[in-house]
Write a structure and sequence with these properties.
Blueprint: E1 2-9, H1 16-32, E2 37-39, H2 54-57, H3 60-85, E3 88-90, E4 94-96, E5 104-110, E6 116-120, H4 126-132, E7 142-145, E8 148-152, H5 161-166, E9 172-177, H6 182-199, E10 202-211, E11 220-221, E12 226-228, E13 240-243, E14 250-255, H7 259-267
Parallel strand pairs: 1-2, 1-10, 2-3, 8-9, 9-10
Antiparallel strand pairs: 1-14, 3-5, 4-5, 5-6, 7-8, 10-11, 10-12, 12-13
Helix pairs in contact: 1-3
Length: about 290
């Protein structure tokens, strides 16, 4: 199968038609290249706040409500495009008020047949905790697709191995991200690569890129698209199937045979996923030897 993962710039829109035109163009471009799965980044939906005007977009609380109010329409648009092009789409995440006082960071996963699921971020960054007050959402979800089992770890979540382990049955883990600095990009990328190594699966990282000075939350963004894998038989020895150019907007494409995931798990040179349980109780049996 072919994957398209985005390095996605955020724009300021004067109308819904401008937003729709952008989504139509991005999806059509990836579909034209033969992509079957399209991955947009964490907080890719932040640009929806601009439809309520600059004052709202510049206020964290007001922007969160404005985005949440428009996420249904944005997801419906992606449903239409997914059906039109016969593709799966992980839409850009954004703050969603789901009957609670505080928003979750939610990404919607859409299939070509119109079915929609979602994944909420589990662990909040310091900025999301304060001043934004975005909260952790619902449980991790495994999506059954035509090409295998897919999980989603949103940005910071990818840096926690036990969350990756909860998705151990997945053939692919999607990692939508939004990182301000180069260090943040590399933290998420290393996390995505580590989860691919541990669970012997493919991970797909998408990023927000460029400036969006109308919002303190996404004012500056550094990143690139990337597709990663175990460093084992049938996969590149570097663990990198594809990587985009840092901060260059556009799609990064990768051809992936998920049958190779099953084969590596069955007969790979190493068996991290199979041998995971052997860490216990060794992880709790530490001996201290004084050498001072």
């Amino acid at each position: 199968m072919k994957i398209a993962t985005a390095a996605y710039p955020l724009d300021f829109f004067e109308s819904w038609a401008e937003y729709e035109d952008k989504q139509v163009a991005w999806v059509a471009e990836a579909a034209k290249e033969g992509a079957e799965l399209l991955v947009f980044p964490e907080y890719g939906a932040m640009e929806l706040a601009t439809l309520a005007g600059a004052e709202v977009a510049g206020d964290l609380e007001a922007a969160s409500h404005a985005i949440s109010e428009r996420m249904g329409a944005a997801t419906a648009l992606h449903q239409r495009l997914a059906a039109e092009h016969g593709v799966y789409i992980l839409g850009g995440s954004g703050p969603v008020f789901d009957g609670d006082a505080r928003p979750v960071n939610r990404a919607y996963f859409i299939s070509p047949n119109g079915a929609v699921g979602h994944q909420d971020k589990q662990i909040m960054t310091l900025y999301e905790r304060d001043p934004w007050d975005v909260v952790g959402g619902g449980p991790l979800t495994i999506f059954e697709t035509a090409f295998g089992k897919v999980g989603v770890l949103i940005c910071y979540d990818s840096e926690f191995p036990l969350l990756g382990r909860a998705l151990a049955s997945c053939d692919m883990i999607l990692v939508p991200s939004c990182t301000e600095a180069l260090a943040g990009y590399w933290r998420v990328r290393v996390g995505a690569m580590a989860r691919a190594l541990e669970q012997q699966c493919v991970t797909v990282m998408a990023s927000v890129v460029g400036e969006a000075g109308w919002s303190d939350a996404v004012e500056m963004n550094t990143g690139a698209g990337g597709v990663f894998c175990p460093m084992d038989t049938g996969f590149p020895s570097t663990g990198v199937i594809a990587e985009g150019v840092l901060d260059r907007a556009g799609w990064t494409y990768a051809e992936v045979d998920l049958g190779t995931v099953a084969e590596v798990r069955r007969a790979g040179g190493v068996r991290n996923r199979t041998h995971w349980a052997e860490q216990h109780p060794r992880d709790g049996e530490v001996t201290y030897i004084p050498l001072a």
